[in-house]
Amino acid sequence: MGTKAPETGVKKPTFTPKALIHQKYASKASYRIEEVQETLENGCPGLAIGQQSRILYRCFLDLPELSVVSDTFTRKKDAEQSAAQIAVEKLGIQSNLNSSTPEEAWNELVARMSGLFTDEFLSSSHPLVVHFGVALRRAGNLYGTIPMTVIAACDVKVNSLCKIIDPKAESDPLVVLSLISKAAKASESVCTLDGKFWIRKKEGYSPNVIELILNRSSSISECLQVEAVYIPCEMEEQVSTLSLLVSDTKYYMDEIAEKLNVNDSSQIIVSRTVGKASSDMKLYFPIPEACIDVNMEQLLNKRASYFSGQSIYGNAIFANIGYTRKSSELFCEDVSLCSYYRMLLGKLPDGAYKVSREAIFAAELPTSYTSRSNWKGPPPRDLLCVFCRQQRLSEPIFSVTNVDSYEISSELSGNCKEVQHANGGIGGIDNKDSDKSILLKCEVKIFSRRQETLAEFSFADTYRKESDAIQNSALKVLNWFDNYLKQLDMPIEKISSFGSSDNIKVYPQAFAQEFAMYLSVYGVKQNYFPGKCSSLGSFPRNLSIPKFENGMILFSIDGPDSGVFPSPGSLTCISYATSLVKEEINLKEVLESNDEFEFEVGTGAVISQIEACVTQLSINQAANFVIEAPSREIILAAAGESANRLSQLPLDNCFLEFSVKVLRVTEPLEDRMEKALFSPPLSKQRVEFAVRHINESQATTLVDFGCGSGSLLDSLLEHTTSLEKIVGVDISRKSLTRAAKVLHQKLSKTSLNQMKSAELYDGSITDFDSRLCGFDIGTCLEVIEHMEEDQAWLFGDIALSSFCPRILIVSTPNYEYNPILQRSSVPNKEEDSEDKSGPCKFRNNDHKFEWARAQFEHWANKLALRHDYSVEFSGVGGLGDVEPGFASQIAVFRRNILNLADEECASIENSRHPCELVWEWNGQPNL
Ligand code: SAH
Ligand code: MG
Fold it and tell me: What is the pTM of this model?
């Protein structure tokens, strides 16, 4: 039946609901109209016998955080307005208020009190009307009375008015209640029960209206049982579940009152909606007995208050129950313990990310945003907006500004001023190009709900695309908050400077106020956050298994090595299952599993143990490992159906067992291009280039700077060379582990070479280590572009002045070749088309720069001159003498003083050994 939009205010609203929605959401609001055939039957007095039908319209409105459906109307327009009206109410958008001053608001509130108790209001479809139905069935002196608290809970307008009268109403439901109580007393037509929070109309309603309401609030036929969550005030007591039973004869508010041990339903306060605006999930708690003169802080239910962003006192019940506009029947839905913990977890930036990826144990908020196609899960900007909404802050403001490229180049190149002059630009920016270097910076401001500035973030990094600037900055802000919220004991004065060299300004007072609740909740319970998995002290299994990083224990790897493995920058798809294990009680329960979970290796998108495990596997291999279990909250958030049962068990001394399998690996664009567009692949051509120089110079010793997973060293073993000793250095432990495995396998099999020893070191190639000195040949292939430019200079200086190899071969991408690579279409479904049309980007997300030929030559020439080397330029891929040169440019440095004594080179700091020897081989080939 078509209902008309409720009109209870004194004056007409200034904006239509649709206009309000448009103001807030613009094109993000989508309306959809559905036709409904309504059959008019006998029940309709004005119509002739027989059946007729007419077309009615119903409107579906989808907003980013809410979807609503209107009643049916004869006009589409009305259906749309009605849907918008419902959304406006649900979202609490301050709208059809005529008041702006507290005085006006007070008068309107008093008027509203009378307005609610009129025949006109009772004929509307307002959810409050059903409460009147309950009241009108009640016998005795409570006939016709409703709890004031349901007015606070159901009427958006009352709430909005209260906020104008007293801003504290925003966060304290007690303030709303006391204002309603005062307004009721001030209103002529209603009366309250002495000392109680019951309210009713002085006079009666018209019989027609009473009949209408009694008909409308049809009774519940059977007894409903609904699951709710009980959040005790006492922090030591655990959150648990309870069941609410409601029936024809039992008002749900009464049932809640009973469960909370209070006399009647007027003593129960209802919070605003928690979580999705489209639900009716609310907290119910008793009115504190001694409202005045008592230190209310003591009565505060900290967990529930933190959870809801409102002051909640005493023990609380979290339930999804209530009357809706759509139907007069009681709506209710179970709230499980698991969903409570998920919502709780979702209040933290990394928690929100974990929940959104449905991988609570596996996912982590990534520390870097490399590209849109590699980012899995909701984009950082959306995550930040959700975070702010969760904290009841205003939407964050992003301001993108253009930065003068000169200014930037001096900022970025740091102590390495030479770079600027090389080509007038910095890494990757070729000023010869017509797409002049537009560099964008993004600042982010965070405001409280009342528009006070809480923090301003201004990051040094610059981007070429606006969306990159925004997403990256949003991610940094998220990570900043995440870190901050995990170190709440940090003094507020310190937080501005904490975590980075970027310019972060925090307004301590306003900031501390907004996040005070965190302190009170997490301050008490240190253990909320999943700790870094330290040692597994009591882990009872076979300890001969090697221990990994972070106390992880990796069990046997299943399946043959396919040779294709997840390396940094690749997208890896895994399947995994995580089980909770508690050996004493024989518990092993799968809590989370995923058949396909994709992430970018090296960005911190998964817990470190999964990354460490996965980088040791190749496609189709699987492995198991265990880590210490995280906190109870996180376990229950992931536990789904089992949460209720598990919550009964003591969850200490548990561990998590992961079983992981690598399904697919998508290599970084650079690797795919090098393979697809060059034959043999560029990496192979680089190896052959190195082999030529090794054999030409009869080198017997080689050090590979930045050896990664050992692809060069490995390939060298397949060639006949003069080498007897090979050494690799890298800062990636994971890559080194992989290199060790590959070399070990090959060296113990092969008999084709005269290799005598092989070593792998974990350390930075910008750090002097005497064990890397005096080699015949040094290689540094596709490494320098992974370091900041000043570090690339530092490496050059150290390599040529201290390591002093006779020959040093350095390769790096030629930026000028990129357009050719980009034009050749490598099938690449994930890369969005927008990226292709834009300016050239780097070949690999991890590249800090890519140099044009002139920039690379400038670097190499300068270093050669400084350290008495000669240098020659060459390359692989394409032709050197045809524009734009080789795809991969190579500099070959040769030491001018050829018989420099080894001691002379290493004498500076003879026994400086900052690198860690992680693997060595000096056996003879197994024949
Ligand atoms: N040379 C290898 C790997 C290239 S990828 C190949 O051609 O396949 C770049 C490598 O440089 C990565 O393995 C990275 O860990 C390493 N790297 C980056 N900065 C480094 C540093 N300061 N010291 C040592 N290795 C570094
Ligand atoms: Mg590279």
Answer: 0.78
